[in-house]
């Protein structure tokens, strides 16, 4: 598990290898990740957007941005947390992801970015 705190918001990431499949005659590697967002600040916050940089060891960097996470824009009161699961497909058994969440402080309407720590994606069978 990797963790990082930005302005009192703690991000924890756990990864898993989900398996392989063929798509358009190419091998694909499926990875899952579980993210927990903890509000350790004194203010209520809302996550309204995310930005991901997905690096596949055999191809170029993919950038994904959009609203919310898995269709939600969670509001976190002080001391609350939100956990969700998602995943990605790679053409290689190795890769990495990093990014940030766009958040708004609901007490003063200020927006800020919360860093998502870089985490590795690796298929267990490919590691020596």
TrEMBL record:
Residues 3-128 form the ApaG domain. InterPro entries: ApaG-like, ApaG_domain, ApaG_sf. SUPFAM superfamilies: ApaG-like. Pfam families: DUF525 (PF04379). PANTHER family: OS05G0170800 PROTEIN (PTHR47191). This is ApaG protein. It comes from Formosa algae.
């Amino acid at each position: 598990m990797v963790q990082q705190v930005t302005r009192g918001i703690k991000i924890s990431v756990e990864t898993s290898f989900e398996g392989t499949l063929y798509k358009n005659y190419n091998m694909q590697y499926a990875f899952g990740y579980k993210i927990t967002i903890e509000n350790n600040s004194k203010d209520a916050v809302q996550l309204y957007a995310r930005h991901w940089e997905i690096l596949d060891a055999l191809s170029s960097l993919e950038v994904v941005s959009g609203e919310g996470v898995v269709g939600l824009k969670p509001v976190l009161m002080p001391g609350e947390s939100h956990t969700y699961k998602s995943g990605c497909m790679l053409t290689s058994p190795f890769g990495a992801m990093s990014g940030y969440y766009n958040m708004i402080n609901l007490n003063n309407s200020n927006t800020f970015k919360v860093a998502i720590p870089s985490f590795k994606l690796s298929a267990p069978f490919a590691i020596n």
